[in-house]
Amino acid sequence: MSKRLSSWLLGLFLLLFVMTAANGFASAAEIRVLLDGRPLSMEVKPQLEGGTVLVPLRAVLGAFGAEMHWDGRTRSVSISRGRANLGLTIGSTTASINGVRTQLDVAPRIVNGRTLVPLRFVSESLGSQVDWRSRDLTVAIARPAKRQLTLATTTSTYDSGLLQAMLPVFENAFDYDVRIISVGTGAALALGRDGNADVVLVHSRELELQNVAQGHFIGRREVMYNDFVIVGPAADTAGIRRAGNAAAALRAIAVARATFVSRGDNSGTHVKENELWRAVGLTPSGAWYLRAGAGMADTLRMADERNGYTLTDRGTFYMQQEKLDLALLFEGGESLHNQYGIMAVNPARHARINFDGATDLIQFFVSRRGQALVADFKDARGRQLFFPNANLLR
User: Fold this and answer.
1) DSSP code per residue over 260-318
2) Which whole-number Å values give the CA distances from 217 to 180, 339, 351, in the listed order?
3) Averaged pLDDT, 295-319
4) How far apart are CA 340 and CA 160, in angstroms?
5) 154 vs 189, 262, 267, 309, 340, CA distance in Å?
6) From CA 394, how far away is CA 391, in angstroms rounded?
7) Other CB atoms closer than 10 Å to residue 223's CB: what's the count?
């Protein structure tokens, strides 16, 4: 063998050795993964193969607020976040993004009972930027800047704590920063009509449908329901516990001239209260009838201070109950059904609104994930406050 050939073979061997050693060194040296500058903790160390970094899938899901569905029969996994839906199969380099097939350089695998997936493919498919720094074996992931979205909603969805439980999930999965304006239904609808909100979540079905018919809102979907109840002093001086229905309970309060505190703010609760007064042919007035002109939590506190009655949604009452001496005195019946609907401001009326964001929020609330969050939301006593019904017709 010539010296030239021997030198060439030796060089090739050294090159292969260096590449193999470098790859092994990358695995042994613990590749770091940073998300927006902060390290991600993982139960299985990242692996480097042929320039592809593989990481445990659950670490990615937790970081991005994504959902996963595992099919043990096909050994495949579906990942969803925002508008992105990915499909990967263990041992296969064929993947999909929103139904479109694509090829991976390295197939997903299972290591120590954990599913490892190509980090760049998953991260970029979910909307982030990925930078590989070979000098210090670091993968730097940068999530996109959050977009602004304004939600006008009732005080009940805020005071009950429901939005504080749901919106962080939406914000993380869809890269939005949601600004909440918590007012009565009438005021929330006015904010939408004036283009000062992108989407509204309220609870006065008749008013909502009226505004949709007038072209102010589009894409209305029913989301959930609970019910209204009448609360008041435990002594129940008006005797409403014996009433046959909600309207009769209000009549008993009026006849006894017992203190009644009304929202008085054109909210969904106030609309329901007026509907009940009309049912018994009464227009309440006098020193016994007080108008709070405030949200539900403040109205409950005022009724408590005045030893009076009020109409409230059950969710807000439950969340405030420990702070009050009020008792739940009347409940039940179709007339106290409390339906919530969500709809987008019509972009044809206000071009500057974030219609894409409004659509994303609507779809989130009616999705399987959003409906599960509604169903799982409970108070400290374990009582369910809202009941999802996006797929039910009334």
Assistant:
1) EEE--SS-HHHHHHHHHHHHTT----STTEEE--S-HHHHHHHHHHTT-BEEEEHHHHH
2) 18, 17, 13
3) 95
4) 14
5) 10, 16, 8, 21, 10
6) 10
7) 22
What's the CA gap between 78 and 70, in Å, rounded?
A: 7
Interatomic CA distance for residues 85 and 281, integer angstroms? 55
Q: What are phi and psi of 364, to 5 degrees?
A: -65, -45
- For residue 24, is pLDDT > 60? no
Task: Residue 151: count other Cβ atoms within 10 Å of its Cβ.
Answer: 27
Kindly state the tokens that stand for 41: 């903790």
pLDDT(20) > 60: no
The DSSP code sequence of 290-303 is EE--S-HHHHHHHH
- Can you spell out the DSSP letters for 184-208? -HHHHHHHHHTTS-SEEEE--HHHH
Determine contact, residues 375/388, Cβ cutoff 8 Å: yes
Between CA 291 and CA 274 the distance in angstroms is 12
Structural domains of the chain sorted by starting position, each given as residue range(s) with its CATH number in brackets = 11-142 (3.30.457.10), 147-223+345-382 (3.40.190.10), 227-337 (3.40.190.10)
pLDDT one-digit tens code per residue, 179-207: 999 999 999 999 999 999 999 999 999 99
User: Measured between alpha carbons, how far is residue 115 from residues 45, 112, 141, 190, 272 in Å?
Assistant: 12, 8, 20, 50, 52
Q: Which two tokens stand for residue 215?
A: 């072209």
